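ERR on first pass: missing label on line 2. Operator R.T. fixed the label and resubmitted. Corrected input:
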Amino acid sequence: MDHLGIHRFFYMGYCIGGPFVLKLMERAPEHVVAGVLCQPVGHRPENPDVMYTSGQEVWAKEFRARRPEVSMETIEKYLHNLYRVRPDFVYSVSRDFVRSCQTPMLVLPDDTPAHAYQTSVDIASLAPNAEVTVYPWKDPPELKARTINRVRTFLKAHQPVTAAR
Amino acid sequence: MDPIRRNILATSAAVSVLAAAPRVIANQSGQGGAATSFYEKGNIRIRYQEIGSGFPLLVTPGGGLNSRISNWPTAVFNAMEVFRNDFRCITMDQRKRQRRRIHWPDPSRRPVGRFRR
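pass 2 clean. output:
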């Protein structure tokens, strides 16, 4: 975004993008005006290795086909650091950070093995300026359209008057 | 200084500057008419797309560690399409190391030492 000359922006992340949004809010709060977390991934205590295993079985296979010189041992260390070192919540930031984060955010929950519903509830409960949509919202189509429009309305409501970039 | 040697040094310096500076490779047309560009810095190459105008909205597609622009058509909704009339939408692949494949027809002419890739 620096390269594009953009100083302030909205950030919407799907799936693993949810933790990215929160991390950027932590590291560069001056840049993120508001965030949308769509079906964020999160830790499941009852199935703690779901992200690690999917990284190993899906991502690592494709990655090693492209980069055979990278050993499986290196990949396992990388996945370990991502998903096992801080096995809680959204992996990228702490609950304390979310509790203190003043940036407005909207959460669109999901409920799949990787997208833990509880994670969305926890984010929306902890963050002081968070909103959450209904769940489920993908069906029927009218509800999905309304949810998409809610994202649009949420973002426009937080658009700076000067639209400074 | 020998003019040939001076030219070689000047060319080398220009190549070094180009290699170190961030640069954008020319636009191409992507999904739904989005402009595709590549940001490069050192050995890092990141594809990104832009569409629409207005306040900037950065959107990261799903797909776990395989999050990339080509995942948008299968997303629950394609933010680049849905919000193109509202915001300046920007999306990108996740960072990957650039791999340069160079074919050397004559192996005896392949660069060695510090110039070898």
